[in-house]
Structure formats: structure tokens, C-alpha cells
């Protein structure tokens, strides 16, 4: 969970912590003055965030909505989903299926909440977003302006590339415009979202079909360094039943919806049959009903349980008067005078599950029945229309989709990538968005001449949720108002109306907030001194927050490492991690070095039988600086977090082919820098590894030696001035340790330029970054110096 | 040792045969004399050995006590079956290391890291900065080579203890100069690898051994002198065993000085006050050198020299080996040793290995212990120099 992936731009410092501690009070077992000896965390993924294919931080934006910070919430959504208003309406919301509230009552209406914030922005226009300055010479061509293409365009333009999107249809949006009716997804919403992306600097050329001989080759010659094919799946599959070719009045759902959506509705007559059970089938049926049809039937060969369409959509269709023939397979199309008159169907029963896991329909002999119709709309499935590729030799699969590498979405031809339905067949919008992100990452790597394989590894951490569901109260799920059935005829007005502000906040407050921190990282950019983001090792990057001083003890808790927060009459416990070290009594020799170093008298020697004694930590006095750990020669004082594992994991970020600068920094001065600032320090040949400590007093010779052993080229240690040390004696200890380290390295012949100890006087991130930059640049100059990494060859 | 579980198991089974472990009578003499067992409730060489013989290597790998053995050979001195327990321990540690197990490194592993970094080829050490201008040394070639060891590093690392490990080296070179010898000192000398090998890191040990072998060959030295008993045991016992023999005579400074005293090349004054001698395990049981340091110390002062309760073959070790598992047990051993030294009525404790000096001084620095034993712990070469200097 790297902060740099979260480019939060708007954060009001006034209520910086409001999202974090909105309506909770964190109570802990505190002694005196112990706020900085505990850390909150590590954060745990919530199931909603875990479930989202695009990796939208659901918990964060729901929390922010609950806090009434709608614009901030929308910013969180936009980090991973450039189409919030669209997904807020038509997303299949896997997040809601995984919501822990399912086990209590109904899931939080996450989709409607997203829609609410998107609508809120439209109603309260923010400062217009500015174009992202172009920082790269390379240009990327994207064929298709559907969700996959738009997402990739959005990601790439934010990385500074020039992006041109080619769209064959007169309006951008791909299937969003062509395939989804306006009563579900109003056109102005699509326009607004696409305008947002356009304003960032993406050029969208509509009515431009890429086709012809060597179309891709021409694009590459025209000055595009990479091409993304995101043409979607717009070609309807054939029914393959008798009569299909004979009669007129049979139309594919994509063509049908396309014609309707572009203001050219075909005449469908009074009776319409739609074959299929997906969302397209339902959209077609409901669209037909809004035209001239009186009776609309859906013929589906399985039962309602197997129907892939959204449950709510089915219910709405039925309410509107659409009749569904379940367990009916089309047998042949009937017609007279070259025109369709009806459909002969066959009753089926469900047999064994097939490859897709759904039960296979088995026809029942002699159960034929006829449904009359003026028009038959087939909505069984779609495949990509790849005819535009002409003679381009791109590998395709047996399903008629483009063959791509699953991880990188690269096609068989270098520089050509493909994403979305064109590679998968018809899927959901959110999956297309996820694919767009992957493709953008891979293209970025391709253009940087980096290996593609590392492009995107979807983070799917283990789910571990500590919410006591039994204690939760049932709260009914908020329902957005709908346009009455009677008002839906002959118009394409949006059926579902969004939440009001009050309803949205109330609904967001239903969120159980699985895990204590909502991971919105809104605190990071403007972090005051007292709340510091500490990054720690793990399978993924984890974050810890030092507790702010506003948080005061409420009552004692017997388990010292558990924190409790209460809010809305609820009580959650979470891991509250003390940073104070503990003493391993078998290792402690009772030498008293730690006792001598600690000015807080947190350590005391306790005698045992015979003349020996061992040290003990008085938890009420310890402030967690870790200086005592550094002076303990037997490692009996064991730190929490800042141990060997932490060190090894952190140092594993060293890249042998680059010049590596390892920075140890005390977390009180100048360490409040976030990810983007750090990556600024890095150049093509240098790699900065930042290790945050509680205090520079924690530095031991072994830290620096290990860094050099692992391949560091230079080490920078920053700490406070001795009189400014937050812990009063840590910096003093660091001076001594540093002198020792310097002498050891001198003996080893490592020139003194390779290690530096800097004292910072003020908390000034800018100065800190400058310092690291300067140190790094000096390294760059010494690049030709032989590296001291090669071992003696045996 | 590399390879998969099977190879490692095979090598360990081979080691059991080689070290005679199958001949164990389970008599328990080893545990009876083991200094660690004496102060630790859970450590027993007999138990470790039976576990090894039953091939429960995975149990041993995960055992904290695998790294507690001081490899001081105290048990081997009494074993009726002549089992090489220390060697077996070392081989099991090598297996454990390949699986990622390690003991508890003191000083957060800094010293182990130093030794590992020593294997880096491009290192341009400034390791002779301590040599003062009045000393005559050669860095190119000569008959007599003085192997300094890690003393310059220890001198920095243990500066907090207010001991000067380099004193031994300075005194040694001064003595050599007095005898008209200009010793060769190596500018790119590396760690001897002793600790790495005993900790089961034989790959890095071999690298260091190869490097040192080549360096010494270049100098053409015929005699190599040591102040450190561990370095000497590595050169004399371990290097040939692993295929890096060095053709030279190896002498500990105490041996060399005793010879010179016997031949009359140097004359010594009487020692002020009483003194006693700590036998380093590497010098004593590993190399069999007991009499020379004693002769040296007793010249012109036989009545002021007092043996400790445990001495020579039965000597008690300094409590920590190869910077591993320094814990309460170590401290108990060291306190006991200091008690024994104090009981002789001595004011000075002569040592012949920098590790003994560091460990015993460290324990003395403990406030409580310091009150009880006010011993002066000094290297044997420094003592000798003082006796000449005060002439």
C-alpha cells in the first residue's frame, strides 16, 4: 500500500484527522506521556477493497462520505477508477457481495454511495481540473474509448505521455454509450466523466475508424510508440437456429441498442422477444418496452438463479412488465412472407454443471411451444469485431478474442497491447477498468524499456478481519428512490435517482469499517508532527500511524496491546502496537548499559538469586525511542518492528544494477515525506532506500554494516541536533555510534564520502529532500568508482 | 555445504561416522565437565550427541543450544571414546546455516557482518594506521610475519569498554624491534575466518583462507607470529584441513618470547604484584600450548605466579565463542572465572587471546561485578614489554 499510488490533492488540514477519528474515540491503556510509544496498525485490507477488481479503496471513500467529505471521497475513487459516475450506476459491485454486513443484514450500498459523490461533484462544480503537463516524448495510441481504453488513457496521461484515443463511433464511451440505455446511464454523466479525462490532456478522435492494411503498423509509423487495442466486444453471436437467416426482424442486441442510443430506433412492432439472460438482454427488453412495444418476452434457457444479469435489474424489468420464460431454449424462428412471426421454443430441464459451473440445460422432448413476435432480439453473447485488423498478424484465441499475456496484456507483437472485452469477451465495466490499469502499467514499462512481467501484480492480500459481527445492530439499507413505473413509458429518463446527502451519510455510517484504519492516507500529505506514517515490512507495504496527542486514554484495558475505539454505540478492538522493546531474560547479562543510557529511568536492574541481575522495562516510563536496544550487546533487549527482519526486508529494496543510497532517518525531523517526493530523489541510475526509525539513537553499527553488505553504495543517517532530540538523549548516543561506525568503515577502506551523518534542526521535509537529493547526486558523480560488491571468486 | 536436504543429511551422517560419535557410551562425562552445562540448566553435550546419533537433525537445527557450545574441547579432553564433539557441532551448524537457522549474534550481528564483508575483493583497508612511526615494520616481505588479526577493528568496536586491544600488537612489535626483527605486516590482511567456520559458514571461511594463504606466500615468511590464539589455531589446524596449507612455522607470541627469554636474548624484571594466567581454549586444548606462557610469566617471578583452581587442560573458557549466544550462562562462566582469578590473590590476569580479554573485561565492567573483582586484565606480550621497559 504505497502512498505514491494515492495522489491525493485535496486535503483540508483543518479536519485532517476527521476521517480517521470521525466518530470514534480511541482508548488505550496509557501511562503518562505515552502517546508516541504506541502505533496504530498494521492496516488490514477490508473485504470490499479486496473484492474490487480495479482495487478502488472502498473502505476509504465510504469512511470519507460518513465524515461528510464528499470531494475527498471522490478523489479516493478517482485514484483507481476514472469513471465514478458511470460505475456508480452500472457497476456489478462485487464489493457489495463481499461486504461483511451481508452476515448481519444487507450490504452497504457502496455503488449508490459512489454515484452520490460523483453526482455531488456535478452539482457542486469544483475547480476545473487542469491538464497534466506532458513530461514524456512518447505518444500512445488507444483504439477504442470504452472503459478499458479510457482508464489506460487516464493512467498514461497522468504519467506524462501523449495519449490519443481513436473511436469509430460518433461519440466516445464504447459500450457505455452504444450498449447501455440512457435510462440506466444518462448521457450527460458519460459526457462529464469523459470530459474530465479529456481535460487532463487526452485527445479523443471520434468517427475515426482505424482499419485497412497494416493499420497498426501505420499508427506505429505515425509517431505512436505503443498501441493499445481496447475495441471491446461489439459483434453479436449468431443464434445458429433454423430461420435465422431467412426472415427479417431479427436483430442483434448490440446493433439494436446502438441504433436506439444514437437516436435511430428501429421499428420493433408490438411484440418483442429477447433471447438471453445477461444485462444486455434486460437492457434490450427494457429499451424495447420504452419504444413502441406492448409485450416483451425474455427467453432464457436456465432458471433465474443462473441468470448472469444483476438481480436488481431483473426485478426492475419484471416490475416494468417484462415476462421471462425461464428454462426455454429457442428451437427455430418462424416467419411468413419473409418476416418474423414468432419463436418456437423447447422446454428444458437443468442437468449436470458445465465448464462454467452453471447447470447445463437438457431439452425435454415434445415440449415445444410458440411465442409470437414481431421482432426477435438476440442477446446471447458478443465477441470482438477484429475485422479492422485486416492482415495484421495478431494471434487470436479460439473464442475469437485477442491473445494476450495475462499479466502484461501484451499481444504477440511488441508495442501492441490489448485490454478489456477485446481480450476476454464480454465482461463487466469494472473488470475493463482493472484491465486498463494493467495495460497502462505495462505500456509504461514497455516505454521505459523495463521488463514487462513486473508490470502489474494484483495485490490480493489475505483477508483477516477482526470485527465482532455478533455485536452489530441491524440497520436497514438505504434505498434510492425510483421513477414510478407509470412515468417510464416512452422516455429514457434515468430510472434510479441517487441518494440525498443525508441518506448517503447515513448509509456510509452503516459501514463496519473492517479494520481500524480506513487507509485513505489523507493524513499523509499534511501530516502534523504528532501523527507520522511509518512504513513497515510485510508481504505488502504496511502503514502504521503514531497516535496523535488528541487521543487520550479513556479507560484501562487489561490486555496491554489492544486498543479500543468506540463510536456510534459500537466498540471495536484493534491491534495497538507498542514500540517499546522487551527484555529476554535468558539473554540479559545484567550489565546495566541500558540502565545507564536511559534518561527516563525506564530500565532498572532486578537482582536474581546469586549475584546476577537482569534488566526490566517499566512500561509507564518507556517512550519507545529504542536507544537502549542499540547499546545492548547481547541483543537481550529486543525491539518491536525495528528488528533484523525489518532491516533485511527494507534492504531487500536494494537494486544491484543501480547506485543505492540507504537513508536512515529519525522520524521526528524531516521524515514527513511521502512517496512521490521520495521517487523524485531517484534517478535512472540511483535507488533510494529509506528506513524510518523512531530516533537516530536506534542506529547500531550492524545496521550500517548490513546495508553495505547487502550492496548499498552510500549510507546517510539523519537525526536531530543533540539539544533538539525528542527523546533528549537519543541523538547524543547516535553521535557516539556514528563515530564508531565511521572508524570501522575507515579501517575497511570505505572512503568517508560513503557515509554521512547529518543533523537537522527543524522539521522541514523540503530541506530533508534536498539533503537526500544532494547526497544522491554526489553519488551519481562517483558512478565510475569500482563497486565494492564483488566477492572474492573461489 | 550446499545442496538439498538429502545431501545435507548424508553429509551429517558422514560427519557422525568421521567424528566417532557412534562410539558414544553415553557416560555423561562431557556434560559433567562442560562449562556451559555447569551454568545452564538445559544444555547438555550428551543430549546433543544422542540426538545427533539418532539423526534428529531438524531438532538440532532449531535448538538454541546448538550455538551455545564454546567448542572449547573441554569435553573431548575427558571423552573415553575420543569423540570429536566440537567438530560435529561445527558440521551440524553448517547444515543449520544452509536452512537459514542461526544462533543469537551478539552486537546485533555486527561482528559477523564485519567478517562477511572481509570477503569482498575490492576492499582497500587502512588497517595499519595504528602503527606508530617509532615502530619498524615491513609491508613487503621478510622472514618473520606478525599476523595482527581483527585487533584494529576490535579496538574501535570495543572502545566503550576502555580496553585497547591493539596494545598487544603494539607491544609485540616493540619487542620484536628490540630483538632486531622487522616484522612483516600485511596491508590487505583479512580476518582469519575462524569464527565464520565455527559458526557454520564454511564458504566465507574458505574465501578468507584462500586470500590469506596467497598473501602470506607472497611475503615469503618463514615464521608467523600471533597474539591471537584463535588466528593461530585457524592457521595451524583449520587451513590445512580445508586445503589451504601454509608452509611456515606458527608461533604464539608467548611461545616466541619464552624462547627468546630462554636463549637469553631478553631479560625480564620481576613482576610487581601477584598474577595468574588465563588459558585460552584455542591456545591450550586446541594447540596444546600450556607451558610456554607459564615459563614466560614465571621467569624471575616464580613465586608471584599463582595457578587458578581450573588451569591448563582443565581450564575454564572465557564464556563466549565466535560472538554467539552471549547470555546469562556466559556471564556466569565469566564471573566464575573472575572469582577463581581473584581467589589466587592475583592483581593481574594475564591473557593470551584478545577474545578472553574482551569478554572478561566486559564482565568486569558490570557495576556489581566490578565491586567484587578489581583485576587488571592484560595481554601477555604487554606484560612482558612492561617488564623490560622498567629495567
* Largest β sheet strand count, sense and barrel closure of chain A: 6 strands, antiparallel
Count of discrete domains of chain A: 6
Number of helices of chain B: 20
Shape, per Cα inertia axes of chain B: globular
Low-confidence stretches of chain A at least 5 residues in length (pLDDT < 50)? 1-35, 455-461, 524-562, 565-574, 781-794
Q: What is the distance, rounded to the nearest whole angstrom, between the alpha carbons of the first and last residues of chain B?
A: 54 Å
Helix proportion of chain B? 40-55%
The top level CATH class name of the largest domain in chain A:
Alpha Beta
Helix tally of chain A?
23
Describe the secondary structure blueprint for this structure:
The complex is a heterodimer of chains A (794) and B (391).
Chain A: E1 25-27, E2 38-40, H1 47-51, H2 58-66, H3 70-80, H4 84-90, H5 94-98, H6 110-123, E3 139-143, H7 147-158, E4 162-166, H8 175-178, H9 187-199, E5 203-205, H10 215-221, E6 226-229, E7 235-236, E8 250-252, H11 253-261, E9 271-275, H12 279-290, E10 295-299, H13 311-320, E11 323-325, E12 328-336, E13 339-353, E14 359-363, E15 369-372, E16 375-378, E17 382-383, E18 416-418, H14 421-424, H15 429-447, H16 501-508, E19 533-536, E20 542-546, E21 562-567, E22 570-578, E23 582-583, H17 593-597, E24 603-607, E25 613-617, H18 627-631, E26 637-638, H19 644-651, E27 659-666, H20 675-681, E28 686-693, H21 701-709, E29 714-720, H22 730-747, E30 755-760, H23 765-781
Helix pairs in contact in A: 2-3, 2-6, 2-16, 3-6, 4-6, 6-16, 7-15, 11-12, 12-13, 20-23
Chain B: H1 5-18, H2 29-33, H3 35-39, H4 45-53, H5 57-61, H6 74-78, H7 85-98, H8 110-117, E1 144-147, H9 151-157, H10 166-178, H11 194-198, H12 202-219, E2 223-226, H13 229-241, E3 249-252, H14 253-263, E4 275-277, H15 282-286, H16 291-298, H17 328-343, E5 348-351, H18 354-365, H19 367-372, E6 376-379, H20 380-389
Parallel strand pairs in B: 1-2, 2-3, 4-5, 5-6
Helix pairs in contact in B: 1-7, 10-20, 14-16, 17-18
Amino acid at each position: 500500500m504505497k502512498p505514491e499510488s494515492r495522489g491525493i490533492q485535496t486535503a483540508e488540514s483543518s479536519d485532517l484527522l476527521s476521517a480517521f477519528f470521525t466518530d470514534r474515540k480511541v482508548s488505550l491503556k496509557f501511562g503518562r506521556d505515552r502517546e508516541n510509544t504506541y502505533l496504530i496498525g498494521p492496516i488490514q485490507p477490508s473485504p470490499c477493497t479486496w473484492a474490487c477488481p480495479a482495487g478502488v479503496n472502498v473502505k476509504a471513500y465510504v469512511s470519507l462520505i460518513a465524515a461528510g467529505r464528499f470531494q475527498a471521497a471522490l478523489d479516493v475513487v478517482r485514484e483507481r477508477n476514472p469513471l465514478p459516475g458511470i460505475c456508480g450506476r452500472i457497476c456489478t459491485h462485487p464489493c457489495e457481495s463481499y461486504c461483511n454486513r451481508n452476515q448481519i443484514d444487507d450490504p452497504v450500498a457502496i455503488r449508490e454511495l459512489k454515484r452520490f459523490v460523483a453526482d455531488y461533484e456535478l452539482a457542486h462544480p469544483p475547480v476545473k481540473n487542469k491538464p497534466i503537463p506532458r513530461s514524456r516524448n512518447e505518444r500512445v495510441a488507444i483504439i477504442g474509448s470504452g472503459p478499458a481504453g479510457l482508464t489506460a488513457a487516464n493512467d498514461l496521461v497522468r504519467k506524462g505521455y501523449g495519449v490519443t484515443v481513436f473511436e469509430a463511433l460518433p461519440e466516445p464511451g464504447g459500450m457505455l454509450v452504444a450498449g447501455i440505455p440512457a435510462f440506466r446511464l444518462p448521457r450527460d454523466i458519460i459526457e462529464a466523466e469523459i470530459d474530465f479525462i479529456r481535460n487532463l490532456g487526452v485527445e479523443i478522435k471520434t468517427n475515426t475508424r482505424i482499419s485497412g492494411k497494416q493499420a497498426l503498423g501505420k499508427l506505429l509509423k505515425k509517431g505512436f510508440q505503443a498501441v493499445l487495442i481496447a475495441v471491446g466486444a461489439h459483434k453479436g453471436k449468431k443464434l445458429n437456429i433454423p430461420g435465422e437467416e431467412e426472415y427479417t426482424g431479427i436483430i442483434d442486441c448490440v446493433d439494436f441498442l446502438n441504433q436506439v442510443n444514437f437516436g435511430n430506433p428501429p421499428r420493433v412492432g408490438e411484440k418483442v422477444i429477447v433471447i438471453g439472460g445477461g444485462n444486455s438482454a434486460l437492457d434490450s427488453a427494457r429499451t424495447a418496452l420504452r419504444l413502441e412495444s406492448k409485450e416483451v418476452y425474455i427467453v432464457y434457457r436456465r432458471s433465474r438463479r443462473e441468470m448472469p444479469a444483476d438481480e436488481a435489474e431483473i426485478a426492475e424489468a419484471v416490475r416494468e412488465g417484462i415476462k421471462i420464460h425461464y428454462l426455454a431454449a429457442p428451437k427455430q424462428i418462424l416467419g411468413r412472407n419473409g418476416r418474423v412471426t414468432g419463436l418456437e421454443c423447447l422446454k428444458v430441464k437443468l442437468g449436470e454443471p458445465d465448464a462454467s459451473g452453471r447447470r447445463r440445460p437438457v431439452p425435454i422432448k415434445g415440449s415445444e411451444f410458440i411465442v409470437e413476435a414481431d421482432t426477435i432480439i438476440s442477446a446471447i453473447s458478443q465477441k470482438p469485431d477484429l475485422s479492422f485488423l485486416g492482415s495484421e498478424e495478431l494471434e487470436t484465441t479460439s473464442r475469437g478474442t485477442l491473445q494476450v499475456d495475462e499479466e502484461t496484456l501484451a499481444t504477440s507483437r511488441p508495442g501492441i497491447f490489448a485490454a478489456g472485452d477485446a481480450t476476454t469477451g464480454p465482461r463487466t465495466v469494472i473488470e475493463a477498468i482493472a484491465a486498463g490499469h494493467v495495460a497502462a502499467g505495462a505500456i509504461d514499462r514497455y516505454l521505459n524499456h523495463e521488463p514487462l512481467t513486473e508490470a502489474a501484480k494484483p495485490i490480493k492480500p489475505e483477508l483477516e478481519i477482526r470485527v465482532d459481527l455478533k455485536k452489530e445492530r441491524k440497520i436497514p439499507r438505504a434505498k434510492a428512490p425510483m421513477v414510478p413505473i407509470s412515468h417510464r413509458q416512452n422516455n429514457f429518463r434515468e430510472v434510479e435517482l441517487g441518494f440525498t446527502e443525508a441518506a448517503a451519510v447515513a448509509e456510509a455510517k452503516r459501514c463496519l469499517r473492517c479494520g481500524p484504519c480506513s487507509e485513505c492516507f489523507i493524513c499523509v500529505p499534511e501530516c502534523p508532527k504528532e501523527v507520522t506514517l511509518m512504513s513497515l515490512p510485510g508481504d505488502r507495504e504496511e502503514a502504521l500511524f503514531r497516535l496523535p496527542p488528541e487521543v487520550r486514554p479513556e479507560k484501562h484495558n487489561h490486555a496491554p496491546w489492544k486498543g479500543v475505539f468506540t463510536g456510534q454505540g459500537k466498540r471495536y478492538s484493534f491491534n495497538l502496537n507498542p514500540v517499546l522493546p522487551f527484555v529476554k531474560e535468558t539473554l540479559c547479562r545484567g550489565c546495566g548499559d541500558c540502565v545507564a543510557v536511559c534518561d527516563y529511568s525506564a530500565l532498572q536492574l532486578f537482582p536474581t538469586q546469586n549475584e546476577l541481575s537482569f534488566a526490566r522495562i517499566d512500561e509507564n516510563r518507556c517512550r519507545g525511542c529504542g536507544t537502549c536496544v542499540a547499546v545492548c550487546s547481547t541483543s537481550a533487549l529486543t525491539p518491536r518492528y525495528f528488528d533484523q527482519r525489518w532491516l533485511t526486508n527494507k534492504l531487500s529494496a536494494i537494486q544491484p544494477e543501480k547506485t543505492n543510497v540507504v537513508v536512515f532517518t529519525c522520524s521526528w525531523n524531516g521524515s514527513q515525506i511521502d512517496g512521490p517526493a521520495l521517487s523524485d530523489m531517484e534517478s535512472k541510475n540511483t535507488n533510494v532506500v529509506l528506513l524510518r526509525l523512531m530516533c537516530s539513537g536506534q542506529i547500531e553499527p550492524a545496521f550500517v554494516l548490513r546495508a553495505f553488505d547487502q550492496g548499498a553504495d552510500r549510507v546517510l543517517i539523519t537525526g536531530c541536533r543533540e539539544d533538539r532530540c525528542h527523546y533528549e538523549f537519543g541523538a547524543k548516543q547516535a553521535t557516539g555510534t556514528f563515530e564508531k561506525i565511521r572508524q570501522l568503515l575507515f579501517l575497511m577502506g570505505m572512503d568517508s564520502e560513503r557515509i554521512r551523518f547529518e543533523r537537522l534542526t527543524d522539521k522541514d521535509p523540503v530541506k530533508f529532500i534536498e539533503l537526500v537529493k544532494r547526497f544522491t547526486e554526489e553519488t551519481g558523480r562517483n558512478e565510475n568508482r569500482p563497486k565494492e560488491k564483488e566477492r572474492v571468486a573461489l | 555445504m550446499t545442496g538439498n536436504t538429502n545431501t545435507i543429511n548424508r553429509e551429517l551422517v558422514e560427519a557422525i561416522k568421521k567424528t566417532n560419535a557412534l562410539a558414544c557410551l553415553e557416560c555423561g562425562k562431557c556434560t559433567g565437565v562442560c562449562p556451559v552445562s555447569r551454568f545452564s540448566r538445559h544444555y547438555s553435550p550428551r543430549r546433543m550427541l544422542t540426538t545427533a546419533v539418532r539423526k534428529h537433525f531438524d531438532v538440532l537445527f532449531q535448538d538454541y543450544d546448538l550455538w551455545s557450545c564454546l567448542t572449547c574441547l573441554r569435553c573431548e579432553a575427558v571423552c573415553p571414546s575420543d569423540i570429536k564433539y566440537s567438530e560435529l557441532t561445527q558440521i551440524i551448524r553448517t547444515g543449520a546455516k544452509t536452512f537459514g537457522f542461526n544462533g543469537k549474534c551478539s552486537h546485533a550481528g555486527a561482528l559477523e557482518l564485519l567478517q562477511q564483508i572481509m570477503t569482498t575483493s575490492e576492499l582497500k583497508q587502512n588497517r595499519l594506521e595504528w602503527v606508530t612511526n617509532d615502530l619498524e615494520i615491513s609491508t613487503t616481505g621478510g622472514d618473520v610475519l606478525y599476523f595482527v588479526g581483527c585487533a584494529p577493528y576490535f579496538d574501535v568496536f570495543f572502545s566503550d569498554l576502555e580496553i585497547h586491544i591493539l596494545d598487544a600488537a603494539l607491544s609485540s612489535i616493540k619487542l620484536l624491534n628490540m630483538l632486531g626483527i622487522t616484522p612483516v605486516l600485511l596491508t590487505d590482511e583479512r580476518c582469519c575466518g575462524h569464527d565464520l567456520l565455527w559458526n557454520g559458514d564454511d564458504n566465507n571461511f574458505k574465501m578468507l583462507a584462500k586470500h590469506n594463504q596467497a598473501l602470506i606466500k607472497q611475503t615469503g615468511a618463514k615464521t608467523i607470529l600471533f597474539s591471537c590464539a584463535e588466528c593461530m589455531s585457524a592457521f595451524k589446524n583449520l587451513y590445512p584441513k580445508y586445503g589451504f596449507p601454509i608452509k611456515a612455522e606458527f608461533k604464539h607470541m608467548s611461545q616466541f618470547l619464552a624462547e627468546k627469554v630462554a636463549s637469553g636474548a631478553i631479560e625480564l624484571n620481576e613482576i610487581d604484584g601477584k598474577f595468574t594466567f588465563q588459558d585460552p581454549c584455542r591456545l591450550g586444548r586446541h594447540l596444546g600450548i600450556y607451558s610456554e606462557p607459564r615459563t614466560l610469566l614465571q621467569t624471575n617471578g616464580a613465586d608471584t605466579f599463582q595457578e587458578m583452581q581450573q588451569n591448563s587442560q582443565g581450564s575454564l573458557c572465557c564464556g563466549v565463542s565466535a560472538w554467539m549466544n552471549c547470555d546469562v550462562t556466559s556471564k556466569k562462566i565469566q564471573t566464575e572465572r573472575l572469582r577463581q582469578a581473584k581467589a589466587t590473590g592475583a592483581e593481574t590476569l594475564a591473557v593470551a587471546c584478545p577474545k578472553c580479554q574482551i569478554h572478561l573485561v566486559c564482565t568486569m565492567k558490570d557495576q556489581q561485578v566490578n565491586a567484587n573483582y578489581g583485576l587488571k586484565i592484560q595481554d601477555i606480550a604487554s606484560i612482558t614489554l612492561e617488564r623490560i621497559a622498567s629495567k
